[in-house]
From TrEMBL:
Alphabetic keyword roster: Membrane, Transmembrane, Transmembrane helix
Name of the molecule in the record: Uncharacterized protein
Entry annotated with the keyword Transmembrane helix: yes
Organism the protein comes from: Candidatus Thermofonsia Clade 3 bacterium
Source domain of life: Bacteria
Residues annotated as transmembrane: 6-28, 35-53
Lineage summary: Bacteria, Bacillati, Chloroflexota, Candidatus Thermofontia, Candidatus Thermofonsia Clade 3
Length: 89
């Protein structure tokens, strides 16, 4: 994975972290009141919660040619299975 792909995949998190760090520096230099720190903490918790919930589960693509192969794959998977059928016609 190249640096551009990593940035593209995690750009929201990186930019959010940079913005939160800048706001924290400004709040520290301005000796902000506690309410501003509470708001900052709430935004921080929201970004972390979004990052944890937005993780996409990994999927695997398997080509099955016969109905028997599909039936066996579904029965032995041990977890939910999404079967998509594709036809050229």
């Amino acid at each position: 994975m190249t640096a551009v792909q990593i940035f593209n995949q995690y750009s929201f998190l990186l930019l959010s972290a940079i913005a939160l760090a800048i706001v924290a520096v400004v709040l520290t230099r301005q000796r902000a009141r506690p309410i501003f720190w509470v708001v900052w903490g709430g935004v921080f918790v929201g970004v972390v919660a979004y990052a944890l919930m937005s993780r996409v589960p990994q999927t695997a693509t398997v080509k099955l040619d016969t109905a028997a192969d599909i039936r066996i794959a579904i029965q032995t998977a041990g977890k939910p299975v999404l079967v998509e059928f594709y036809s050229n016609y």
